[in-house]
Amino acid sequence: MPEAPPDDEPALQVEDLDVTYGRAVSALRSVSLTVPHGTVVALLGANGAGKTTLLRAVSGTLRLHRGAVTAGRIHYGTTELDGRDPVAAVRAGVVQVPEGRRVFAGLTVDENLRSGGLGLGRRRPDQVARARERVFTLFPRLAERTRQAAGLLSGGEQQMLAIGRALMAAPRLLLLDEPSLGLAPQMVHRIAEVVREINAQGTAVLLVEQNAGMALSLADTAHVLEVGEVRLSGPADELARTDAVKRLYLGETSGEGAETAQRAGTTEGQGAA
Ligand SMILES: Nc1ncnc2c1ncn2[C@@H]1O[C@H](COP(=O)(O)OP(=O)(O)O)[C@@H](O)[C@H]1O
Ligand SMILES: [Mg+2]
């Protein structure tokens, strides 16, 4: 397992980041945020705000989507990430769990897990065994289903497998893209517990969620993205008390206007889906 960075070193620093798709579509503008070592940072925002784009920039997968960093910097400890090199990101300890729990449906649970961390090249068998052990301790249901085709798992189990596969690379920073999307409340609760547990084991987490209640209950700090820009940042508990977050993201209706704002949020979400 790679060594953890020193405690006083920020895990991730994004500075004034601009990202563009194709030649013209600006998806992020001057976005800055920090994920301090060992913390959980939540990134909230409506559909199309740029949350996934930020994770792609950090994990080096932008180019796969015809996107590019056009300004700004991404530092991870002493490594500079450029948005175009997923292997460099994995080697630095940064691993993304993509949205939509994309597991290999035709492969078994075990084969899916073994595909995690391939970018790290040849690893010692005991390192791989330790990573597997960690996954099975977190997700006992996967341990019971190692030979089952991933496509036959429930949605929640597939999300667990997607997270488990990422953990096989022994990340120091885990990027999670909407892990709760489309899951039953009980499973959302279970995913939240797992994120807490992974973090308690020393892995920093950048958590993208539309389920603001869940994300803010887990996070140390949080940022709200709106059409490509950071609109609000602060300690998660403080953000959860601000009117804008309550109205738009926690679904609390306080007086006139709130409902309209909520409806507007929903419509925007569908438009960009
Ligand atoms: N591959 C792509 N090509 C062109 N535009 C894209 C691509 N992916 C995302 N976008 C656009 O970038 C913006 C941000 O998208 P995204 O990061 O997926 O938002 P979120 O994850 O917050 O829903 C949106 O306007 C979206 O339409
Ligand atoms: Mg997204």
TrEMBL record:
Matches recorded under Gene3D superfamilies: P-loop containing nucleotide triphosphate hydrolases
Signal peptide (residue range): none
Domain annotation ABC transporter: ranges: 12-252
Positions with biased composition (Polar residues): 263-273
Positions of region (Disordered): 254-273
Keywords noted in UniProt: Amino-acid transport, ATP-binding, Nucleotide-binding, Transport
Pfam families per record: ABC_tran
Gene Ontology biological process terms from the UniProt entry: L-amino acid transport
Family statement: Belongs to the ABC transporter superfamily.
Protein's recorded name: Branched-chain amino acid transport system ATP-binding protein
Taxonomic lineage of the native organism: Bacteria, Bacillati, Actinomycetota, Actinomycetes, Kitasatosporales
